[in-house]
Recover the amino acids of this structure.
């Protein structure tokens, strides 16, 4: 007898759940740990209140729920977390994997069902009593580990445009995305065009004179 592979009915919801936590990791890295973006140098916010404001604004822009409990002190700790998460968007090398494992241990990542009085229990990757920084880090770190662990680590990318190192999660079907957004894609295309045009001009100047 042949047994068909088991399929999870709610697979789309599970994928969306993991993606939401990956996007939070992307947001933290881009707001608190990136020094080059969209072709120019940027200075990440350096104080708790500025970091807090940057994260809240980015959450709103991304359509993610704001956090009423995020404090400046939390934001300072999240800046350190963002620096630790950033290498995951560059390479899946063993040192990156080991650091991610250490991060999960430090922030007590553990699958946990959180009860709700108004609905079914909710899956999280942190204990119910965890503070905001541990909760966010455990959830984001576990989501990144899940992406890497199922062989999709190449989808955790950094922008390939010049002078941009913003992180992103590539959700295209064939994992072909190279840039953090349209502006960097257009900059890269324009740069490639200028380089080809300059190369063509130089080749023409070095060639034989036109015949009579």
């Amino acid at each position: 007898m042949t047994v068909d592979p088991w399929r999870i009915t709610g697979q789309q919801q599970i994928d969306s759940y993991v993606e939401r936590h990956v996007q939070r990791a992307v947001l933290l890295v881009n707001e608190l740990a990136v020094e080059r973006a969209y072709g120019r140098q940027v200075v990440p916010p350096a104080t708790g209140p500025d970091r807090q404001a940057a994260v809240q604004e980015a959450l709103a822009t991304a359509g993610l729920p704001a956090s009423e409990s995020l404090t400046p002190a939390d934001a300072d700790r999240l800046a350190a977390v963002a620096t630790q998460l950033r290498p995951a968007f560059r390479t899946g090398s063993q040192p990156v994997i080991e650091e991610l494992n250490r991060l999960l241990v430090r922030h007590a990542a553990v699958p946990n069902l959180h009860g709700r009085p108004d609905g079914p229990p909710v899956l999280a990757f942190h204990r119910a009593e965890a503070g905001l920084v541990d909760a966010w880090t455990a959830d984001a770190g576990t989501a990144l580990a899940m992406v890497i662990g199922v062989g999709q680590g190449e989808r955790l990318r950094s922008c390939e445009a010049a002078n941009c190192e913003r992180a992103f999660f590539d959700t295209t079907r064939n994992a072909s995305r190279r840039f953090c957004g349209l502006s960097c894609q257009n900059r890269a295309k324009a740069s490639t065009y200028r380089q080809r045009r300059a190369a063509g001009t130089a080749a023409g100047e070095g060639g034989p004179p036109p015949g009579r």
Remarks:
- The beta strands are 36-37, 40-41, 112-116, 119-124, 156-158, 167-169.
